[in-house]
């Protein structure tokens, strides 16, 4: 009896100590030459990490690792408490766009919990697809580089995403996610409690919440913070975008703060009437309710005169917009702000003058 108890105690101490198990993808046959497909090696490392009852590290040494087709890391049957990808190298997609161009996502995490991705580079080699698209030929839509779906407790830090075919990163229906040091980000329906910090974005479309409101029944987005972020030469800075369609979706409790804009076309924008080519928007009014959005300490330069634009609609006006210390200039001339169906408060230094 005594011995059994001691063993149990020993086991518990072992469990709660910082003991971690490390799986190096190279030991599963991955070669860092950028030519051999290393997908199976990554999946073997994932499967073992997922089955491990101690926290696991998937270690990716320096070098280039080809992931030749779309890969899914599924957490559905995992026993693990935590899995960390420690990446020193680069994961590369094939240079020919067809390999992943018809997939929704190149690297996908599905129903995972407590996953950290730390360091490393993802290179989707999207150049050939972009060349195809600009030549006017018929080309695949393109894959998002990294997609995290229906997951919880996600941390992504110091990850670089290069040459994506579509979006760099998509979070979909995730709870508790923290992104640090990444490129531009898009936050879709159903995401809550997301912290985005120290992102350098540009060129690109900026950081967007949306598009939302495509579906009639749609999960909302709430408690998103975007902090200490710089946009350089992007189309948008911080954007909220909702389709001009009927929907019960919503966006609330959003904070954008300490944001620097360098020559950004639409630094602060809520586009609540999104409907490209006026197609698929039968009643032209967005149902998505947008409320409690804070913009604090947003400064820099706008590439167009309308530096602040809140374009909401009669069907669901924007409420609780708060501007504090916004200083955006346009080529030496005064920038302007434009509001439609937007209400809220403004304080501190405000350039352009608030239209709320
Ligand atoms: C990983 O686990 C899944 C699910 O159990 C299995 O289908 C797959 O074959 C495994 N892959 C490898 C490379 O071991
Ligand atoms: C909001 O999200 C943050 C993480 O970004 C979390 O720490 C905080 O508890 C959340 N707040 C609420 C009210 O859920």
Automatic annotation (TrEMBL):
Lineage, uppermost ranks: Eukaryota, Viridiplantae, Streptophyta, Embryophyta, Tracheophyta
UniProt key word Signal: yes
Signal peptide: 1-19
Protein's recorded name: Polygalacturonase
Keywords: Cell wall, Cell wall biogenesis/degradation, Glycosidase, Hydrolase, Secreted, Signal
Organism the protein comes from: Tanacetum coccineum
Family: Belongs to the glycosyl hydrolase 28 family.
Main location: secreted
Entry annotation: catalytic residues: 205
Superkingdom of the source species: Eukaryota
Localization, UniProt: Secreted, Cell wall
Gene3D superfamilies: Single-stranded right-handed beta-helix, Pectin lyase-like
